Amino acid sequence: MLGEIGFPWGGLDLQINGALGLAFPDLTAMTGEKLPEICRFLWHHGIDAFLPTLVTTSLEKIHQALAVIAPLVNQPPMAGMAQILGVHLEGPCLNPERRGAHPPEYLLPLTLETVQAVLGTNAAIVKIITLAPELDPTGTVIPQLRSQGMIVSLGHSQATAAQANQAFQLGASMVTHCFNAMPPLHHREPGLLGAAILDPEISCGLIADGQHVTPMMIDLLLRANASDQGLFLVSDALAPLGLPDGIYPWDSRQIEVKQGTARLPDGTLAGTTLPLLVGVQNLVGWGICGVERAIALATQAPRRAMGQAGLAVGQPAHFLRWHLDAITNALSWKRLEMVAPVP
């Protein structure tokens, strides 16, 4: 084994929809008892912290899930447990034309009244909210959400480059799973993604499972963003994460999982069941980038996207030690014991 590297952080997953059979939108007082088990599972898969992601569903289920998660947000880090930093609310104010696997019956218009109704009494724990900016021609929603401390991410959107740039000027600072659920790059209309790539202040989430985005397009994106200031990896993992391939319930529908990819019966891509750090291994295995850059995209980059500070004296460090096999180009890692804060 060559190229051993120690990193002071594990992964930070800003978009994960569930694990071990539990979808986060299905959280109740009873199913919430499984959250500590999921935190342990994610820790052992190299994740230090994550944002449980709530996709489009009924307001009742959103409020119920937020209430279950709220007491666990920002609890002190515990050895062997991934920390819950807050919630990523993906929807329900999304463009129906780009809804992907989001159920159309629960999509809502993007207005101040709608957003406040969705957030309910637990707005403080929502750290990221994904929305389609073109649904709000008044331009009032994004500044209001920013004033409440939320990161606004653009996604499931038909926005033109002009509409995206306007949203960025209003305070949006992120793009949800770039390339997916948005217009493709076009030489006459670069769209949301083109505008985001050219803006150094915007962070783009990327799913590196090889199904959501082909490795060639990931290579193109990384070459267009040599500094990595605007890219970070997410898993977008669904509830069957940690379970074998098969058919599983998903809201009122079913998904079929094959080799880590989840699809609806009509073939619509619903998500993946691969952990975040598999994306790191993929980038290296595909020969797209070097080891250090790939690791940083799942560790440093999402922290930067969240506005978190870098390492400081007295801060706990949770080391992962990475190994690269010089013959097979296979990247692997192992957990080290929690390292005590530097005195």
Protein traits:
4-stranded antiparallel β-sheet; alpha/beta; about 350 residues
3D structure, described in words:
This protein is α/β, with parallel strands linked by helices and 343 residues long. It has a single domain, classed as TIM Barrel. Helices cover 26% and strands 23% of the residues. The chain is built from ten helices and 18 strands. Strands 2, 5, 6, 7, 8, 9, 10, 11 and 12 form a nine-stranded parallel β-sheet that branches. The chain has a four-stranded antiparallel β-sheet with strand order 13-14-15-16, with no helix packed on it. Helix 5 packs across helix 6. The longest helix is centred in the first third of the chain and has 11 residues. The protein is globular, with a radius of gyration of 19 Å. The model has no long low-confidence stretch (mean pLDDT 91).
Mean pLDDT: 91
The CATH topology turns out to be TIM Barrel
Number of helices: 10
Oligomeric state, counting identical vs distinct chains = single chain
Largest beta-sheet characterization:
9 strands, parallel
Helical content stands at 25-40%
How far apart, in Å, are the first and last alpha carbons?
A: 33 Å
- What percent of residues are in strands? 15-25%
Task: Return the string of H and E elements.
Answer: EEEEHEHEEHEHEHEHEHEEEEEHHHEE
Q: Which CATH first-tier class would you pick?
A: Alpha Beta
Described by the principal axes of the CA atoms, the overall outline is globular
Number of strands: 18
The CATH architecture would be Alpha-Beta Barrel
